[in-house]
Design goal:
It is a single chain. By secondary structure, this protein is α+β, with helices and mostly antiparallel strands. It has one domain. About 25% of the residues lie in helices and about 25% in strands. Strand 1 and strand 2 form a beta hairpin. Helix 1 crosses helix 2. The longest helix is centred in the last third of the chain and has 9 residues. The N and C termini lie far apart (about 25 Å). The relative contact order is 0.17.
């Protein structure tokens, strides 16, 4: 799948929306930007799929965000 799923009804049962972050178990996801973090750690990373989508030339809002905001 190339496009990020930003509709919470299409996520697994138990997923909640807090602010802009989707939470499931101990993980937080921000599909619109491709960012991922664990609730017990401050580090925010990009989902591995962002690099693969960039290599394939797939243009989604999250890939554009990744390209424009990574260090």
């Amino acid at each position: 799948m190339a496009k990020e799923i930003c509709d919470i009804s299409k996520w697994p049962a138990g997923t909640e929306l807090n602010d802009t972050w989707f939470t499931n178990d101990d993980w937080l996801f921000e599909p619109s930007t491709g960012r991922v973090k664990h609730k017990n750690f401050p580090t925010i990373k990009y989902h591995d799929s962002m690099i693969r989508k960039q290599e394939l030339g797939i243009k989604t809002p999250a890939v554009e965000f990744y390209q424009n905001n990574r260090i």
